[in-house]
Description:
Layout (H helix, E strand, L loop, with lengths): L3 H13 L21 E5 L2 E4 L4 E4 L14 H11 L10 H13 L5 E5 L2 H16 L3 E6 L16 H4 L10 H4 L2 E5 L3 H11 L3 E6 L2 E2 L5 E2 L2 H14 L2 E5 L12 H5 L5 E4 L10 E5 L1 H4 L18 H15 L3 H23 L5 E5 L2 E5 L8 H4 L4 H13 L2 E2 L8 E2 L6 H16 L2
Parallel strand pairs: 3-15, 5-6, 5-7, 7-10, 10-11
Antiparallel strand pairs: 1-2, 2-3, 4-12, 8-9, 11-12, 13-14, 14-16
Helix pairs in contact: 2-11, 3-11, 7-8, 12-15, 14-15
Ligand KE4 binds next to helix 4.
Amino acid sequence: MNHTVSHSLFQTAKTLMPGGVNSPVRAFSAVGTNPVFIREGHGPLLTDVDNNQYLDYVLSWGPMILGHADPDVVAALEGVIGKGTSFGAPTEAENKLAALMIESVPSLERVRMVNSGTEAVMTALRLARGYTKRSKIVKFNGNYHGHSDALLVKAGSGVLTHGIPGSPGVPEGVVQYTLTADFNDEEMISQLFSQEGNDIAAVIVEPVAGNMGVVPMTDSFAQLLRRLTTAHGSLLIFDEVMTGFRLAYGGAQTLYNITPDLSCYSKIIGGGLPVGAFGGKSEIMQHLAPEGTVYQAGTLSGNPLAMAAGYATLKKLQTHPEYYQQLDQKATALAQGLQEAAQRHGVKVTVNQVGSMLSLFFTDQPVTDFETAVSSDTAQFGQFFRAMLDQGIYLPASQFETWFLSVLHTDDHIQQTLQAAEKALKQL
Length: 428
Ligand code: KE4
């Protein structure tokens, strides 16, 4: 593949922006090659600035479940863009998306729109602390909840890839109330609660982790988190930024049959535009300004373009419940095919797949938490990544990320991917 224009643009980008990117994982530094610059996307396909075409399993890290340039989403944007792009005033569009989210997720009685997943999680935790009048929060190693200071302790996304536990610039005082435990470790979280439970404002968890690669909570761990938080007056917060409206229309919480106290969203609810949201019980949400005294604000929160794109996306998912079974079937076929291809070539892999989220770990261990995830051979993943990219398969540029499918990935696309994987695995 020719990458002349991408290469030139990347050289320029590095003189303009740190690492030449606006989010670290995009720099491809974890996979030992230079990023390709994307010109456009249509359905499941991307075209780069050198006219190379790729089958996209990143989908903007999750939002593009309908595929790129979905005609209904484009039409919704065309219908509003000529009327102004931002007012900083209430609009009916915010009512519509909020109402649709509340209608779609039983645990949501009130929601607040923000502009990113980071902002949604940061504010949900402030609300939990304000509501419980407690300071301590619990997160799990390998989970990533955005880059707000208090949560950059052993995060599971970019920070994990760069091998930096936490981050410079995060003062000790900010993380002193952030407790960490191991994902799926029932004994550890039980012990933590027996020691500190009455001081814990909230536990935040990715119900199906996607930021150490895909690692689902066990059912018993999920039930335990709900029991422990209820027993100690702590809030249970599901970070559904990635899983919301992806793993089921009602999100991962419907798969686990758990009612969290607060849930956080982004990605799919914006249809590719910047939207974050959090919500839950009215009794908790009413503590948020201006109704309550827990402060949060945002110039572009509820932006009319973002609301239109998000509403068109969720409405399409709501009216096509068959999408979820189709996504699951294709992802299952891909996961099984990858496992079989690796076995044929004597490559040790573990494939974790939940719905339309999957990860191929280069390890022979079952991957059930942060420690087993990082046992993976990241150099081998890098080789595999480059071989797949050369064959037109665009994977997430890190062992510790999630592959996503869209409703427009066809069975033929899955076969194309497996044929490319066969060749890539053979070269390892
Ligand atoms: P944003 O601030 O990036 O919108 O959302 C942060 C966030 C919160 N919670 C979960 C479960 C998330 O997955 C994310 C962001 N996910 C990463 C992908 N691993 C975004 C990609 C990136 O950082 O460039």
